[in-house]
Amino acid sequence: MSRHRAPAPPDLYGRGRSDRLMRFLAAFSDVYLPAVTRADRYGQRPPLPTATGLELVVAARETEADDVVSLRLTAPDGAPLPRWQAGAHLDLRLPSGRVRQYSLCGAADDRYAYRIAVRRIAGGGGGSVEVHDTLRVGSRVTVKGPRNAFPFAAEPAVLFLAGGIGITPVLPMVREAARLGLDWHLVHTGRTRASLPFAAELDALAALGGDRVEILPDDEYGAPDGAKLLGRAPAGAAVYCCGPGPMLDSVRGAFDGSGASALHFERFTAAPVRDGRPFELRLRRSGAVLPVPADRSALDVLLARDPATPYSCRQGFCGVCTQRVTTGTVDHRDGRLTEQERADGRIRVCVSRAPEGSRLELDL
Ligand code: FES
Q: Cα-atom radius of gyration of the chain, to the nearest Å?
């Protein structure tokens, strides 16, 4: 098998500027923190994850807004859980075997529970519907993590921009900014007021004073405009943004003309294919040949053939979609696979591709 080394891929998290501090924080959160997780003050150690993850139980389920539920997850024996920091997420394995990523949106200093929130998306990949329809108090789930691909660096001045359910990773950051006494401002946008989760918690943050929280539903204020949102940034502020694709694209487009110092953001949908060229997949076991158009990913094509194809983040970092290439040249675009993994033929099909007109054979 030959391999093609592509130029450095675009930043998967959409960071507008190279940011060594953020890379350091992500590595610190992913590698160092779990290694030094200590016993709590009662001498209990967090439960050790099994090879397949950590089994947790749904201890509470709340309706947070139209089509949004939150789940409070605890260890079955009430043991403390591994520590996490604002921006972290869990990989949640659902009873069907689907794996989906959900940001932790509870209190980072609560050692005994994780909270996630999920909006039901009827036309999505089925994960959110499964959460809504099958997970009840007492249900068991398996999780991996917490891991952090969206770490908060606690800059002195911060603008938080959250679209709809994108408030989930942002909420712990806002609490941290308030706790540290930073100069922060939060804008939460969404279709309607009734669609926006955690209104009471945001009201409590707003009650801290300083006009720091703005709620801007689309049906009252219009669709969010990147330049106007960035206009709320305190001078030299870092911007943390999580929301739907059009909002992120608008903020990214306006960032260079703003006075903000850095932009960090997290998508919860697949990033659009950039610089795509058509190529083909061949599935070794069936011999099927599947064309991959320029504007679609290999994962999209595999999902169209088999909706059970595993995936989670669709952005190249979780590894759930990894397949093995038996023949062909890979244009690796994930930035996460090691040289050895690439040499072993691994490919993350949600983002990686092949040169125009060529064919990759997958061990499927
Ligand atoms: S789905 Fe997460 S790396 Fe591809």
A: 21
